[in-house]
Amino acid sequence: MTDICNFCNKLVCGCGIEGMRQLPDACIPLTVTSPPFDDLRLFGGNSFHFQPMAKELWRVTAEGGVVCWHVQEQIKNGSETGTSSEQRLCFRDLGFRLHHTMVVETVAGHVSSEVRYGSALQFVFVLSKGKSRTFNPIKDVPNEWHGKLSGFSQREADGSTRRRRKAVIGTMRARGPVWQASLLGPHSRNESETYPHPAIMHEGLARDLIRSWSKPGELVLDPMGGAATTSVAALAEGRTFLSFEIFPEYHALAVARLEKTWERMRREVKVA
Fold this sequence. Notes:
Blueprint: E1 10-13, H1 16-20, E2 28-33, H2 50-60, E3 61-72, E4 75-76, E5 79-80, H3 83-94, E6 97-105, E7 122-128, E8 139-142, E9 149-155, E10 161-168, E11 172-174, E12 178-180, H4 203-213, E13 219-222, H5 229-236, E14 240-245, H6 248-271
Parallel strand pairs: 1-14, 2-3, 2-13, 6-12, 13-14
Antiparallel strand pairs: 3-7, 4-5, 6-7, 8-11, 9-10
Helix pairs in contact: 2-3, 4-5, 5-6
């Protein structure tokens, strides 16, 4: 059996589907990826084959592991295509749990239109293979009533209320399922070497998904690696990475970006 350690911290120039076929079964604790949004971008003329991609993700995901699938509907003929909804249900039919649906609100989402309230929202479908074994909630929302003693109640099925124990409200609470780009840290486009890539995933989003759904030292996969956003985020969060990118031009961007990241991390270690 192939040792998964042989794939750690690798940026592979090649098809993600074929790359995953070289991996052992049930070996990946977390995947963070962003597939093409319909045919909005050409990506070097390479076609996106969803069904075999989804099947390989199911095979390589470890029991209790998670796939974070970042998508957005496209508008055609005045309406949304429904592509991401079809993908979500296909994942369910393969065996994934539809563990969580998150909304990513971006500045671009508020662009006005004559027929709708802005463009379609972005989503992250958090898909788990069985019960998710890891969740580290990010607590960065201030509690207005922190430090006060509060009693919590729970509504029963018959409509009655059951009092639960009292607890002191903490300084911060966990985020909700709607994340805004302004809250997610630096955007990848601040790095000049990523400019040629037409659809950079938000680095802050990738980092926070990795923090939430994996443990330090674990391997994070991106089978459609693009300009290495997931890989850079994994490094920053103390994880290892494995990325496949089929288009050589974007793979070269990823390598340059990762080298820059390694160099920055080495300088920070020296300063510390």
